[in-house]
Amino acid sequence: MTVVDDRIAMADANTQRLDEWFERLERMPVPEGFRVEIVGGNVYMTPQRDTHWGITFKIARAVEDRFGKGAKVFSDVRIDFPGHENGLCPDVAVLRASAEKDDEGRWRYEDVECVFEVISEGTAANDYGPKKAAYATAGLPLYVIADPYQGRCYVYTDPKNGDYVTRTRVDFGDTVDLTGTVADLTLGTDDFPRD
C-alpha cells in the first residue's frame, strides 16, 4: 500500500469522528457569518469578509456561466477529503454531473472535479498547505487559489504523490486560462478586490 492509499483509507476511518465534530459544532452558538471547517483535526472558524465573498461569488458565477445553472457547484459545503480528519468546506467546489450523495447524504470527494479557494488572512496556511495536500492526494486535477493579499492566483495541476507537480502564477488583472483543464474556462481577475 502506498502513502496515498493510506491517506485515502484514513479519510474513510475519520468520517465518523468528523460527523461527531460537526454535530457538536452545529449545536454551538457559532456567530452568523462565520464559516467552520475541520482541517487536519483542527477546527477553524473564519469570519466571512466582503473581499472573500466577492471573489468567491465571481468564481462561482464564472463556473455557472460555463457549465449552466444545473451544474453541481457548491460553496462552503462539507466534503470529507483524504488525510487526518479533513472535513473541508471549499469556497467553490465543482462536482461531476453524475455525482450523487452517498448513503449518509454527503458528497464524495471522488466526484469533485476541481476546487477554488479564496485566501482568508487567518487560515491562508491551510489553503497553501494541508488543504492543497488533501486535494492532491484525492487526485483533484485542478486546484486554484485566489489570494487577495498578494493580488494573484495560483493554479495547481498534475497531482502526484500528495502534491501538485505544476503551479502557475497569475496576477490579478490578468486572465486565468483554464482551457484544457476540467474547468475549461477563462477567469477574468481584473475586478477581483484586494485586501
Characterize the structure shown.
29% of the residues lie in helices and 33% in strands. It has 195 residues and is of the alpha+beta class. The strands form 4 sheets. The protein has a 6-stranded mixed sheet with strand order 3-6-8-9-10-11. A 3-stranded mixed sheet has the order 5-4-7, sandwiched between helices. A hairpin with an 8-residue loop joins β12 and β13. The longest helix has 25 residues. The radius of gyration is 16 Å and the shape is globular. The N and C termini lie far apart (44 Å).
What is the topological layout?
Elements: H1 3-27, E1 34-39, E2 42-47, H2 50-67, E3 72-74, E4 79-81, E5 86-88, E6 92-95, E7 107-108, E8 112-118, H3 124-128, H4 130-137, E9 142-147, E10 152-160, E11 163-171, E12 175-177, E13 186-188
Parallel strand pairs: 4-7, 8-9
Antiparallel strand pairs: 1-2, 3-6, 4-5, 6-8, 9-10, 10-11, 12-13
Count up the helices: 4
Q: Specify Rg, calculated over alpha carbons.
A: 16 Å
Unreliable spans = none
Average pLDDT, to the nearest integer?
Answer: 85
Largest β sheet strand count, sense and barrel closure:
6 strands, mixed
Quaternary assembly: single chain
Number of strands: 13
Major sheet: order of its strands?
Answer: 3-6-8-9-10-11
Supply database-style keywords:
three-stranded mixed beta sheet; six-stranded mixed beta sheet; alpha+beta
Brief characterization of the structure:
With 195 residues, this protein is an alpha+beta fold. The chain is 29% helix and 33% strand.
